[in-house]
Design goal:
- With 552 residues, this protein is α/β, with parallel strands linked by helices.
- It has 18 helices and 16 strands.
- The chain has a 12-stranded mixed sheet.
- Helix 5 (205-220) crosses helix 8 (254-269) and helix 6 runs parallel beside helix 17.
- The chain is elongated and about 120 Å long.
- The chain starts with 5 loop residues before the first strand and ends with a helix.
């Protein structure tokens, strides 16, 4: 009896002994195989059929992968020019020169995206690349703590043949816009700019245009816009002097200025004043490595910030845009200068105005030449506009669930975005992937997408879960950057200047010349002429009316 040609329990197609998935339908070959001799159901690991006694080679155990470990024998990063990130029928690598070609980590809730992000952050840090991450749920903070022995992790290590695997912590620097769970993060009103600030304030196109005029006014008059009270003072000044400013800046509607002022007040009432001020975050502080040469992982606590989704996404976009404007062109590098993870990326594009979408596309297209790779994290690729999605070369797609017609459409779109692998159907597999398993496609040395593989992501070496608040405070207080940003500073700005400035005087209009009084003879002549014209007009009108309607 041949030990080949076992039968898939789902579609009855022939599969080789030891195969993990069916080549026809993608079903997982773990349990309830069928005997090639009598077609009886058998369990994985059975050596002989209970019905006919045929010899059967057992498939690989659950979670195992038959592929050999990389030749280098490293734990997770296997060579200087590539990173070993997953294993399916064979190891899957990321080419380090292609890390700045951006990426996508997608999948339904609970499918393993967070662990995948942590694994990638560890690998990038190990190779000396600084990382920025937003911690939306608080469970990424465990990167600062060494992992603990875990049965699932140990099983993954053994099945993948990972050599010299060792749990360890990573150099994490914690940031928090509220200053409670990390180093305070601030920017100035001028640094945020009118377009992004308009999105935070929820302004329409007309109101955004007026806000841009307000910023132009500040530039013309050398007024520093540092915090909310500076902008409030300038908007109030524009409303009080709108007539005097008309010739220079056009019509500044008091109604529109009032709307902007109310929205600023709402933002301040909801705690928005903590975002703006000095010292503003210098993004150069994100760069650098620890004493072991590992890149710093800059972790922004967003548990509270995420309660305002639009504020969260706009604040992260400001950081990314600031990086783009700050960094010089560097061309192609052996490895990126930084990797930026944008979690819950769908919020960035929800209800975004056209001008903002254009800015996002521009940043994504051009920032890679400045040595920065962006990795968007979301549920489905359809959450990302096509113009941006087409620029994401490295893709890790975890399982998707098809509960609704919209979900089914998303699965088809996700499957169509991969370079086809003839061994399985992407669309069928997407609903079958286990936690920690994904469809993976990376760019090759020439920048072309590799054929998609069904693979398990390597296990993390740091702690699975959130770090204790005491540990976060300890690391924050010990960080040299804490002393730089902990105290808010103040200097003379628009508010202080406008408090001392008198109202602008509107330009004097030329005095009206008195009308000449006509004499009596002229007045009588005009009246006579007017009466004559009126009579002629009536006669002409009657003639036209009779001609049209045939009256006599």
């Amino acid at each position: 009896m041949s030990d080949q040609n076992l039968r898939c329990p789902a579609c009855n197609a022939a599969v080789n002994a030891g195969a993990k998935f069916c080549n026809e339908c993608g079903a997982k070959m773990e349990q309830n195989l069928k005997c090639p001799g009598c077609n009886a159901a058998i369990k994985a690991g059975t050596k002989f059929c209970n019905e006919c006694g045929a010899k059967i080679d057992a498939p690989a155990p659950t979670g195992a992968t038959p592929a050999a470990a990389p030749a280098s024998g490293a734990s997770s990063s296997s060579a200087k020019d590539k990173l070993w990130v997953a294993t399916g029928s064979e190891p899957v690598y990321m080419i380090t020169r292609m890390l700045n070609r951006h990426g996508l980590i997608a999948g339904a809730t609970g499918t393993g995206k967070t662990v995948t992000i942590k694994v990638l952050a560890e690998m990038f840090s190990d190779m000396g690349v600084p990382v920025f991450m937003a911690d939306v749920k608080g469970d990424v903070s465990g990167l600062c703590k060494a992992g603990e022995k875990n049965a699932k992790v140990e099983e993954r290590v053994q099945s993948m043949g990972i050599k010299d695997f060792a749990y360890c912590d990573y150099p994490v620097r914690f940031f928090d816009v509220y200053g409670k769970n990390g180093i305070p993060v601030r920017t100035t009103i001028a640094g945020m700019g009118p377009i992004l600030l308009a999105r935070i304030l929820g302004l329409n196109e007309t109101q955004t245009g007026v806000l841009q005029v307000i910023f132009k006014m500040a530039d013309d008059q050398n007024l520093l816009l540092i915090d909310l009270r500076d902008l409030q003072a300038l908007v109030r000044y524009a409303a009080d002097n709108s007539k005097a400013l008309l010739d220079t800046y056009g019509n500044l509607s008091t109604q529109t200025l009032g709307t902007i002022q109310r929205n600023l007040l709402t933002l301040a009432t909801n705690g928005g004043e903590v975002f703006f001020g000095e010292p503003a975050l210098n993004l150069q502080d994100w760069f650098g490595c620890d004493q072991k040469g590992r890149g710093y992982i800059n972790l922004l606590d967003c548990v509270a910030l995420f309660q305002s989704p639009q504020l969260y996404s706009t604040f992260l976009l400001w950081m990314l845009s600031s990086l783009y404007e700050m960094l010089p062109e560097v061309g192609d590098l052996d490895k990126p200068k930084m990797v930026y993870f944008f979690d819950e990326a769908h919020l960035l594009f929800t209800d975004a105005p056209k001008v903002l979408l254009q800015k996002i596309e521009q940043v994504a297209r051009l920032i890679r030449s400045k040595g920065v790779g962006i990795y968007f994290i979301t549920q489905a690729p359809s959450d990302i506009p096509d113009n941006v999605l087409s620029q994401l070369g490295n893709k890790i797609q975890h399982a998707l669930r098809a509960y609704t017609p919209k979900d089914q459409k998303a699965i088809k779109a996700a499957a169509a975005s991969f370079r086809t692998n003839p061994a399985f159907s992407c669309e069928a597999v997407l609903g079958q992937l286990n936690t920690g398993e994904a469809l993976v496609s990376m760019l090759d040395e020439k920048g072309a997408p590799q054929m998609v593989e069904r693979a398990f992501i390597l296990p993390p070496k740091s702690f699975l879960g959130a770090a204790a608040p005491e540990r976060i405070r300890e690391l924050t207080n010990a960080c040299p950057l804490y002393g730089k940003y902990v105290q808010k500073t103040s200097r003379e700005s628009a508010f202080d200047v406008l408090q001392k400035r008198p109202p602008v005087q509107a330009p004097d209009k030329p005095a009206k010349q008195p009308k000449a009084q006509p004499n009596m003879a002229t007045t009588l002549a005009k009246r006579a002429a007017s009466s004559t014209v009126s009579a002629v007009g009536r006669q002409a009108g009657n003639a036209i009316f009779k001609g049209i309607f045939g009256k006599k």
